[in-house]
C-alpha cells in the first residue's frame, strides 16, 4: 500500500478559516499556535520601531504576525510564512497597491521572536526556508538566552547581546536599535 501526503497550495491556505494557525512549508501545513504574552509584546515593540523608521523614510510595508509572505511557489510546492514582523520595500512589491492575499514576494527583513512553543529543530527548519528564499536579513530574537541572531544572505551568522546594536544595513538604511532595549520590554 502506498501512502501519499497531500501537498497544499497558497490557495488552499488562503481558503482556510482566518483563525487557523498555519503556515505552509514546502506544501505541508505547519501549525503555529499563538505565542505567549512576552514574545508577542517584544515582537510588537520591534514592529513599532521598524515601522516608525519605514514610515519616516517611506521605505515600504511592515506586517505583523498575521502577514503572510510567499517564499516559494514551484511545481505545486508552495511556502508561505508569517514572521512576527516582516518588511518589504515598495519596489519589490511593484508599487503602492497592496494585495488582499499574502505578499507575493519574500520579505526583505524577517523578525522572529522565540516563544515557549518553539523547538530548535523547527526554528532551524524555518530559518532554512528564509535562506532558500534569499531573504536578505533575518533577526531571530531568543528571549531565553537573551541574544539576537542576525542572518544575512551569504554571510556567517552573528550573535548580538546587550551592549550591541542591531543595524538595518542596506535593508533599512540608518536603522539602529540597542539590543539591551529589546530585552527591557
Describe the structure.
By secondary structure, this protein is an alpha+beta fold. It has a single domain, classed as tt1808, chain A, CATH 3.90.1570.10. It has helices at 10-15, 37-57, 90-93, 120-133, 179-182, and strands at 22-25, 28-31, 60-63, 69-74, 77-81, 85-89, 109-113, 137-142, 147-152, 158-160, 165-167, 176-178. The longest helix is centred in the first third of the chain and has 21 residues, at 37-57.
Describe the structure concisely for a colleague.
The chain has 185 residues and is α+β, with helices and mostly antiparallel strands. The chain is 26% helix and 29% strand.
Topology at a glance:
Elements: H1 10-15, E1 22-25, E2 28-31, H2 37-57, E3 60-63, E4 69-74, E5 77-81, E6 85-89, H3 90-93, E7 109-113, H4 120-133, E8 137-142, E9 147-152, E10 158-160, E11 165-167, E12 176-178, H5 179-182
Parallel strand pairs: 7-8
Antiparallel strand pairs: 1-2, 3-6, 4-5, 6-7, 8-9, 9-10, 11-12
Amino acid at each position: 500500500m502506498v501512502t501519499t501526503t497531500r501537498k497544499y497550495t497558497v490557495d488552499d491556505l488562503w481558503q482556510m478559516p482566518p483563525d487557523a494557525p498555519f503556515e505552509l512549508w514546502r506544501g505541508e501545513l505547519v501549525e503555529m499556535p499563538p505565542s505567549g504574552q512576552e514574545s508577542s509584546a517584544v515582537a510588537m515593540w520591534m514592529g513599532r520601531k521598524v515601522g516608525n523608521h519605514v514610515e519616516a523614510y517611506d521605505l515600504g510595508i511592515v506586517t505583523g504576525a498575521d502577514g503572510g509572505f510567499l517564499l516559494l511557489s514551484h511545481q505545486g510546492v508552495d511556502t508561505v510564512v508569517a514572521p512576527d514582523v516582516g518588511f518589504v520595500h515598495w519596489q519589490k512589491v511593484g508599487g503602492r497597491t497592496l494585495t488582499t492575499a499574502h505578499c507575493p514576494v519574500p520579505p526583505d527583513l524577517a523578525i522572529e521572536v522565540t516563544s515557549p512553543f518553539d523547538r530548535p529543530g523547527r526554528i532551524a527548519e524555518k530559518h532554512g526556508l528564509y535562506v532558500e528564499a534569499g531573504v536578505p536579513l533575518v533577526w531571530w530574537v531568543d528571549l531565553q538566552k537573551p541574544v539576537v541572531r542576525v542572518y544575512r544572505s551569504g554571510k556567517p551568522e552573528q550573535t548580538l547581546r546587550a551592549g550591541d546594536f542591531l543595524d538595518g544595513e542596506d535593508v533599512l538604511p540608518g536603522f539602529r536599535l540597542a539590543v539591551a532595549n529589546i530585552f527591557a520590554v
